[in-house]
Amino acid sequence: MISEKFPSRLLENAVNEFAKLPGIGRKTALRLVLHLLKQDPAEVEIFGNSLIRLRNEIKHCRVCHNISDTDICNICSNPSRNESLVCVVENIKDVMAIENTHQYNGLYHVLGGIISPMDGIGPSNLEIDSLVQRVAEGNISEVILALSTTMEGDTTNFYIYKKLRTANIKISTLARGVSIGDELEYTDEVTLGRSLVNRTNFEDSIIQ
Amino acid sequence: MISEKFPSRLLENAVNEFAKLPGIGRKTALRLVLHLLKQDPAEVEIFGNSLIRLRNEIKHCRVCHNISDTDICNICSNPSRNESLVCVVENIKDVMAIENTHQYNGLYHVLGGIISPMDGIGPSNLEIDSLVQRVAEGNISEVILALSTTMEGDTTNFYIYKKLRTANIKISTLARGVSIGDELEYTDEVTLGRSLVNRTNFEDSIIQ
After folding, report:
1. pLDDT at position B25, please?
2. What is the pTM of this model?
3. Cβ B145 vs Cβ B157: under 8 Å
């Protein structure tokens, strides 16, 4: 049976599929589908196949669990990176954000989420045991905890800290402080307080 | 060569493809692709295939040029619709908008655009000859011109009118007037002027 609104089942299916994406409503979905209808069939086939291949062929790096086309990702397999430094992040977007700063030359460890009892995510759902294992292998001298500054992030940080504190490595976390470009009067008091306690030598801030 | 920003070529391809869609930037594209990565592979395959099938299998109705799964669309093939009435529209979205009013029981003729010399679209690029042909076959008593009230729409209306005026049929156009819910003081003067000239009997407006 064809719906009253759509003149075609194929059109309706495509709109329904697009509308499942987050932030895409039915009006936008229809607009996108009608745009695709005007494109070259070969172009649309490339689009469709790129999604199918993405989902079926993408791998997770055996070492850091970042997504990758190969068994070991191009960061872990890069010989010019510092293998003794591991930055722990929540997901692949955080890896991309840190890579874009061009300030970090170590490796990563992607947890795949953070501990969040409300969402039913506990330590066993995350790549924490594999991090402990990596540290136990003995080549790592420092682990940088780079999780969100939320309650869940802090909980995860603390859980990892407890797991790693017996290992003979440095455990650090990202500096908290006033964002560059922020006006002091609009900075929240916790951040401002932390930036006072952890104030840095002025000369160091110039070199930065 | 893998781009510096993306840890995976497959990911980058999918993001590039999404970012080609109108109104989807690279940040949104990445968000959508990472969402798909979390979905079931079978679900993503259904999504990808729905787009490929849409583009490859969809047809245009032989009679009205609306998009359709079959040679003749479900509106043209519906015996309960009034075959002597044809509403001329620009595209399939207009068909859907008119269908949603539940006020029209005739057939359609989808031009596939409007005359727009700026965009290089002339009468020969549109389904105007096939409309003249449909009228010449003699079963149509009225053609309703339902194009946008823009300069291009008016040009197209007039072109079609000139082509059809020798045929012994009624040629009508959508009523222009104050939109329902509009405040008079914010209505543009052309619309307000037209609604005065074409004022309707009050009793008719109640029945509407």
Report:
1. 92
2. 0.75
3. yes
